[in-house]
Task: structure prediction
Amino acid sequence: MSEQKYLNLNNGLQMPILGYGTWMASEEEITVAVSDALKVGYRHIDTAPVYLNEKAIGNVLSKWLSSGKIKRSELFITTKLPPPGADRPDLVEFMLRKSLADLQLDYVDLYLIHTPFTVVVDEKGEFKRYEDGTIIVDPSTDHVALWKEMEGLVAKGLTKSIGISNFTVKQIERIRQSCNIQPAVLQIEYHIYLQQPQLIDYCKSANIAVTAYSPLGSKGVGSLNKMAGVERELPDLLEVPEVKAIAQNHNKSEAQVLLRWIVQKGISVIPKSTNTKRMRENKDIFDFKLSAAEIEQLNNLDANLRIVNFSFFKGVEKHPEFPF
Ligand SMILES: NC(=O)c1ccc[n+]([C@@H]2O[C@H](COP(=O)([O-])OP(=O)(O)OC[C@H]3O[C@@H](n4cnc5c(N)ncnc54)[C@H](OP(=O)(O)O)[C@@H]3O)[C@@H](O)[C@H]2O)c1
Result:
């Protein structure tokens, strides 16, 4: 079946529609997993300094690149400006250079502002908190000033493309009104229970490619919530009866149906797995097609239910740019 496996970005570059997510995997786990993901054939890797595994990923990439098994031009690497840098335009280049040093790369393919809100950190880089444990936010965030610095990174060849993550239409519009380089990508939580049709339509009209994070429901977020003392029942997307029935119909797994539904909409997807069998499964989604009726059935499951609502960062909801 001929299938679009790349998305064309608004700057003429391409991004593989399927990528590999790396959140909530230790350095040990991710060292094995990224190597396995490259063996399985993933070429698009999504990371961020807050995942605390860029160094481990950098070691794997360096081995693959220096052995000649892979060329830099075959990879699409995304990383993100962390929330503690998101209020300080003067820190933008420093933050990317730190990620590049850890990843052992000269450039990334995509640099995203991770969140529209900002937290305050101490000298050790740890989040500052009030006595009750809630995080201290920095309300002085200026997205327009920040974006100017992001544009400078492209001019310096430190990243090929720039974008945003977890931003609202209003926040993206503010950047677009004054920018020289349009955001190429918006990365957001996106799955059958959180479809955000207005945001998706807006991105289509603004020619901004969308990447879906937590497409399988991000099981690990439950443990973060627990650590933060947040009681929250989260759904298991793999157990949804409609998903199970469609999977059976195509002789595919529930995860494959959830991912296929996303790429069939022209949205990029970055499932995370540290299990080689599941990595292969998540990649094997281009040899079947959901019918229009099946797509519709899954569209109808939208419940506006956000799984990664950042409640594990108690206090960030007080930031004036908190998006949810
Ligand atoms: N921009 C942002 O703010 C943001 C926020 C969240 C995530 N992200 C990015 O998006 C990526 C994906 O999101 P996510 O990690 O939250 O969640 P996800 O990809 O929806 O789900 C990952 C979970 O699903 C399990 N899993 C993976 N494949 C499976 C399969 N075929 N069958 C059954 N279970 C499967 C994984 O376990 P195993 O590892 O054991 O397979 C893991 O527990 C992240 O890793 C990160 O790169 C970005």
